[in-house]
Design goal:
Layout: E1 6-16, E2 28-31, E3 36-40, E4 44-56, H1 59-70, H2 72-75, E5 78-82, E6 87-100, E7 110-123, E8 128-132, E9 137-141, E10 144-148
Antiparallel strand pairs: 1-4, 2-3, 3-8, 4-7, 5-6, 6-7, 9-10
Length: about 160
Amino acid sequence: MAALPALVLIGPMIQEVTKLRRDAERITVKDMENLCAVREVPPRWYNLRFNAAFSAKSSIDLLEVMERCSRLPQQYPLILAAGETRTRKYSWRWNSFPSATSNPNVSGVCEGRGEIVISDVEVYSDIRATVPLILSVEYDAQGEKWSVGEEGEEE
């Protein structure tokens, strides 16, 4: 590293949150001109885990960096992720708060480690299906006929 103190994030290690598989998050777009709808498979949800490595010239400097980092979740409770088509905010936390080693390493640098978790990141698959729209339903059984149009009214 060119300058100390420094914080390096290593990762992410991705962990799927299987209890968040929700069909309600499915994207459906209706195309009334072509009388079809496009449905996308619901997203998968993940927690992203990052190892945080702290380095400083002395134990005092390292403790000051760790103290400043301890306030980050209160100052910035949400992490902004901006993509080309949408912007999302994700909550994050210290899963294990940084702890310092008692002695400097071989290079004379004091080090500390911790873990940050960014929760519930949705990842869409881009798997889509095009389905025709049903505009009316007709029923004919034993001489009884009825139909339902797109307005939902029985005829």
